[in-house]
Hints:
5-stranded parallel β-sheet, alpha/beta, elongated, 948 residues, 3-stranded antiparallel β-sheet
Amino acid sequence: MEFRLLGALEVEDGTTEIKLDRRQERLLLAVLLLRANHVVPREQLIDLVWPDDPPADARGALQVYISRLRKTGITIDGGRDGYAVRVPSGAADLDRFRTMVAEARALPDPADRGSLLRAALGLWRGELLPDLVDPPTRDRLCASVEEERRSAFDERIQADLAAGLFLPLLEELPLLVKTDPTREVAVAAWMTALHRVGRRQDALDVYADVTATLADQFGLEPAPSLRRLYSAILRDDLALAADGKASSETVPRELPVDISVLAGRDGLVHEAVEVLTRPDRDQAAVFHVWGGAGVGKSAAGVRIAHRATAAFPDGQLFARLQDVTGEAVSARTLLGRMLRSLGLTSGEIPEGLPERRDVLRERTADRAILVVLDDALDAETVELLLPQGPRSAVIVTSRAPLPELSTAVHRHVVPLEPAISRDLLLRLIGRRVRDEASISVLVDHSAGLPLALRIVGSRLALSGDELLPELAASLAVEDQRLDSMVAGDLAVRTSLDRTLVLVDTQARDLLERLSLVGVTEFPAWVAAPLLDTDEAAGEAAFARLVDLGLVEHVRQGRFKMHALVRSYAAERLESPDEPLARFLQAALRLLVVADDALGHGFTTAQAVLAPGEVGLEQAEREMAGNERAWLGESWPLLQAAALTGIAAGRLEQAVALGLRLNSFYIITDLREPRIEVLEALRTVLREAGELEWLVRTEICLVAALGSADPRSWPVAEESWENAQRSGSVELKVRTLINLANSVRRQCDFDRDKEASELALRLIDHHDGPAIVRHVILRNLGQNSAARRDYPAACDWFGQLLAECSPGTVQEFYGQNSLSEVLVKEGRFDEAEQALLRSREISAPMQSPYFEAQIDCLTAHLEIHRGNVDEARRLLDQAHGRFDHEPGLDIGMFLDEYEADLAMALGEVATGRRIRLKMLETMEERGDLLGAYQVRYELEHDPRDPANA
């Protein structure tokens, strides 16, 4: 089977042409042929075949086209990473073209060399991929092949010039230069041919015309080599009459244009220039810059090179060690290019790799040359390209560390700090921007990557401010984020593709599966369940991702992956079910171990799934004795795991995670995340008809919303109805507890008492859960306190404390409630003992929320003892326990006792103002009991002269 790609795509099987009628099939085959015998990722193929509107099942549709191609007899291998077309040597015209060019370069005679190059170029029947893709996409796909064609064409011109074929060149070159005046080789050959046939003035006129065209149309100046040729013709230099061999004094100037704005790298550039230009070195200096995709290492390398050029008068060489597809360029090819840049003709460049290396070292032994090796893949290739003499220097950039470069200075380039990122973005936009909120989103999602910031900046520089919120919104959506990070030939996805080829299978699996974790920062233990391996192997896989800049090492045992890499990982992820199940099980296991160790006494979640050991012994050992701190650091991951489980339909694990987290949320007053996960669980459990799990979730949700919040009241009523439908005595008792709290907040004290008494009967006479009996006793005490029957309240709270487990949260609440009514009764010493016991219980839980409650209640006691200074200290202490604005419930608690203290100090106006503000807040919130109690204090506080 023969494939013709150099023009319109043609496929023949013997003498029979294979017809491919669908454009998508022709495009798919053409793209695979461009990288024949190499795997092309599925995502790249899908983006090319359906650039604007891919079908819902794009992978399935792609498979259909692959199957149709296979039915024609074309061999296409497929795997999880993509597809590869298998083409025997010589079966594709592109392969034959490359072979002929390589053979031509080895010919010493320029006439023979030009003839074979002409034959190779004759294989081209037109442009690549005609009518298959739009011009920008064609340019991106075919750039490297077109460059091969252009190089072969330039070499053919040089060979014809060396062979003395001046007249044919003078017929060909004028039209070629007119079409593309930037083709330096063609312009130089035309001028040289004119000079050699005695038309010196015409050669000078060509230079003048080309100079004017470059300035007018492109804003460019002629290349240094053309300027030197022009000067030589003016001098009528005898060297121009020679056989066309390049001068041994060729001075290459190959550095790419320096970018206009390089932010946050001044120190790196300064250090590098010092290292590269140090006068006392005895060998070529090597400065190695490495970092992850898009971090700006190449831009930094080019800036360093430009700053150091004055120290290297013999020239600067620049080589990219990967081609546009991310494939490694061989050291032999790179050496050939470097030697041509140093003035050797194709005939003077030896064939073998060792010989080429030796010639490079010989040519650079006494020169001061700066070499930039960009995007290196390995140290071995770099070593082959190093110049010999101590006057030379080398800048190497790579995505991974290259510790094997033993003589190099190695520097890791990291993402920019947010402030520097913001400054760079605004400079790239080039105008004043007022939408600071959108700018903050853009900076955040650009993750400190100069590549991402340049893409965003270039898009906004060409648009009005109306694009700002639209772009910010698209970056906030995970599956749109990478599509927004494209501008011209810049794309974050492409940069990440080129990094991923360096990653082994296990580390690649980890990268993709980390998108299941749901947070950007995570502990090392997540790798083990995601990879189904042990903890040590998981950490090793993390280390390999860190080396490539795909994951950031935050501190011992913790890693971070920015949002752009997370989106990329999520795009690539296939078959997530098993890794997700293992991860959720591991997260739940650690949560259960930590939650049980807190000793809080909450029992609603005890009936849900509690897995056994999952192979995370090291993680469990590190947690032991530090469970509270572990939960404080891990709850965002555990919350995300619960929500991920909900989305994936893994309800048993999701419910267990959500309800187990509820206990920690209570003792830390993390109200919003608590409500978020419980409401998400309630929604999906309603739809699934899982009545028992639904009721347990609603029980926790009522408490999370707070019985003072009117949103909790219908949930309490519905959960009671669902519990009756379930027939479970346990669930009936638990929902009655919530119902009692709910109706009390609505000032229905009779129904409150009835619900509590019914719950007690279900426990005492129908085998209800005795473990929650003390909660019902607390409700009855609160009912009595609300009716201002303080002796009865003291009795109920006393019974509670006699029945509940010591050291639990329930004893904590009981002691607090008892202390408050004891103060009302004037039994101050007993109240003090109750509060001291509360503080003992709270200490191991390390909850600022609990400690602030005790501070407030102790302040209340001291106010009534007349110790206002101590009360002031305690309230200040309560405020100081929060590094942010306290939640609404504890905030109202603080206000209640601030008002009490103000009245005790005679600051009546202040006390009334605080209480009136509390009343307004409670009425707006719909908290009937809270409003009733504040209004009572306003109207009955004897310290207020208005109540005299």
